[in-house]
Amino acid sequence: STESAATSDKDGAYNVRSVPLRLYLPDGPVMQDLAPPSLESGTSLISCFRYVESHTSMSTGATNTLGNILSSHLPLLFPSKQRQLAYPMVQGVVCPADAEIAWLGACMAGADGWVNVMIGIS
Predict the structure, then answer these.
(1) Alpha-carbon dihedral of residues 72, 50, 20, 30, nearest 10 degrees?
(2) Angle at 26 between CA 48 and CA 33, to 5 degrees
(3) Phi and psi for 52 in degrees, rounded to 5?
(4) CA-to-CA distance for 80 and 5, rounded, in angstroms?
(5) How is 87-111 classified by DSSP, letter by letter?
(6) Phi, psi (5° rounding) for residue 107?
(7) 39: helix, strand or coil
């Protein structure tokens, strides 16, 4: 192969249609959903999950991040322009809001393939 291994590994993370996520709230329910690794330009954050279910081709837009998912699913805890009232933890590590969903799915998924995000209250 003429491609470097690092390039093919990163592209492989974006070749998936969706990444399964579980959001564990403190003393609350567990939310689970499928998150696309990238958003099509013009797609709103709230409709990104419907996009995955209704389209079969891979989108070529902006990279989807954990912050996008958290602010769309938990807008009171993760407001987009204000101080965050909570923090996400993946595999016991506080995860930044700009972590890419594709990277989380490739590197931080559990043995069952799900990315488990625990929500801690600040």
Answers:
(1) 50
(2) 20
(3) -65, -40
(4) 36
(5) EEEETTEEPPTT-BHHHHHHHS--T
(6) -110, -25
(7) strand
Q: Which two tokens stand for residue 87?
A: 């923090």
pTM: 0.71
Given a cut of 90, is residue 112 above it in pLDDT?
Answer: yes
- Name the β-bridge partners of 120: 87
Q: How far apart are CA 15 and CA 12, in angstroms?
A: 5
For residue 47, the SS3 value is coil
Q: Tell me if 116 sits within 8 A of 95, measured CB to CB.
A: no
Where does the chain have alpha helices with state H?
Answer: 5-13, 48-54, 66-73, 101-107
- List, for residues 50-109, the tens digit of each pLDDT value: 333 333 334 456 889 999 999 999 999 999 778 889 999 999 999 999 999 999 999 999
Residue type, 36: P
**Strands ordered across the beta sheet of 30-35:** 30-35, 19-24, 115-121, 86-90, 93-94
